[in-house]
Give the backbone structure.
Amino acid sequence: MARNLRVPQRDQVMLLPVDLREWLPEDDLVWHVLDVVDQLDLDEFYARYRINGQGGAAYDPAMMLALTIYAHAVGVRSSRMIERACTRDAGFKVVCGLLVPDHSTITRFVKNHREAIEGLFAQVLRLCHAAGMARLGVIAIDGTKIAANASWAKSYTSEALAHQVAEEQAAFEELAGQLIGEQIATDEAEDAEHGPDGGGRGDDLPPQLRGKAERLQRLKKTKADLDARDAAAREQMRTAQAAKQAAWDAATAAADQGHGPRPHGPRPKDEVTYGQARTRRRRRGKDGEFVAPPAPRASTTDPDSRRMKAKHGFVQGYNAQAATTTDQIIVGQLVSQHPTDHHQFGDVLDHVTTTLRTAGITPQQPDQQPDQQPDQQPDQQPDQQPDQQPDQQPEQQPDQQPDQQPDQQPVEQQLIAAAAQVEELGVVLADAGYANEETFAQAEAAGVHLIAPLASDEKLHLGTDPAAGQNLSERPATARAQTKLRTPTGRDLYKLRGQTAEPVFGQLKDRRGLRQFATRGLPSVRAEFSLACTVHNVVKLIGARTSTPAPA
């Protein structure tokens, strides 16, 4: 008995529909991407093209943009792979209308319209807000390390770069001497044959010297950048040390006059050490060997990248920051060269507020402090009702827990009101990497509640106090922030961080394939990350509009 099988007939005449709209189902991702692109303002893209009709016909920028967004949405980021998909994949064929732009055209489009592509982030965010997805009451800020398009082995110290510069200079001069000798002999032979009046510019480097000259120039530039970065870091440390000394002297003088306690510890030293000059060494391994700390390094492949500690070791790359809502919509993003998140909060918050203004979403005004009620008088205490005497104690509310401190109740009410906002920034969630006095003070000045513990998430799960037992007597903003985190509402809000910012980075890396940047240089890397965040928001917007979820 014969098996009932469906055998492919590869010699069958093509029976695909003539209408491209019948190639894919109506709920396919392609049609939704095209719909989103139709709602965007592309005047900045079209402004680069001539309106007189002269020259060869260019590909429609709307088509090229839709192709770029769709390709990144399905995890295809290479221009050559996009070109190949335009000849084999039905979705890419529909986007391009059977046109096949080559990989050079795709690369030039992204490169030439870098600023316009970065501006799309605010436009897509406006569409997400119109769909009710960009609720700003609670946002989470987090960072991740993304590898640069640079070799780990091509990262050198200043001494190693100086040694390479000397070697390349010697090799360049030796080869130049040989070529000059050959050139003199050739010129003498040609002058003897054709006469001394010959043409030629005489200032072009021979082909053998061009590669070495470019490498020598790149090495010199990398070493100069590293030395300048090292000098700037030393000057920054000296300035910070001088500020600490001035604060210590002021506190000591005030204590001598009977105003406040004396500062803890001795006066900060006049000299601070940096890099290999540190006298304090660290221990490596179990054998007890002491070694000097590593010296600063610079990459000759991508000088803007830095060595950073990632989750599974060190990486030569960048620090990508993102601010996301509870709907996993990215409302702010940037790429930094700093290896840690310690001082990134202010820059991320500035980008969020700027993006919200550009998108037409009204952010919270920074003139109102989060610890002050809108209808509270300046001389009124937070716990005092408007018609209550100063010496009258407030009555206990019926729903107040026995173990809850009375002064935590107004703080918790503020958190609840801030988290319920839709078009204003209310509560910002961050991990312990952002927690420091400067960051908490910036949050209060911006009028937002920053919920960030001093203890790690692992210790918080074990019931450790958010302050981790640290003395916060000289850090008032940090103490106020930890008081918010001790409330039940503060703890519940902080639990949302794990389902807002962290999944977004997982989707960017696993679904979009953004584990390594394809471009080099900080401006290009920032444009690439902005495009990835824009595509992420487009996919989330499409998933909210359709019954069939789009790929995460």
Q: What stands out?
A: The longest helix spans residues 207-256.
